[in-house]
Protein: Caspase family p20 domain-containing protein
Amino acid sequence: MDDQNEPGCGDSTDALGDQRGGASPAASWPSGSVAGGGLPSRKVSEMVVDCYKMDHKHRGKAIVINNKTFSPRLKLGVRKGTDKDATNLYDLFTKMGFDTTIEVDCAAQKIKNIMSEAADDSHWDEDCFVCAILSHGEQGAVYATDAKMDLDELITPLKKCPSLAGKPKLFFIQASNGDWKRTDGLCLNG
Structure:
């Protein structure tokens, strides 16, 4: 079965610049391994390239949730620089062909509504769905402007969306821990 020529499976050149159909870098790998270096042993003939169909009429929706200021009772600082990040994501997703929106300083109920509405939308003619959440957070959770929210609670409605079945649902979480302190970094001599 040759999936490499299926629509949406990439171009005819791999990441190393080799044209498909010729000798691949895998031809030089040790027999029975993927790449030799500690990866699980698998014959090259057993490897299958899985890919999503990305040739629908529209790329899809992209939602950027940008939480900068929070309720004083949460004791979380203002997220300086987040507006620039949100603008950069908006520009990137738009250039990639997504119908992109930015939602600013969202309370928990508003975020739930955004996700519920996105799950209720029709995505039949779209390739995928993207959501970026810029906020404070901790392991497995992000903060709305008024409450902590479990990530599973946010993602579940989209996982159940029939018109997104079998399509990528991409979630980018940029969540700083409220007590994290920025440092000047470490200078390495090359």
About this structure: Residues 82-95 form the longest helix (14 residues). The chain has a mean pLDDT of 80. DSSP finds three helices and six strands in the chain. The CA atoms of residues 58 and 126 lie 5 Å apart.
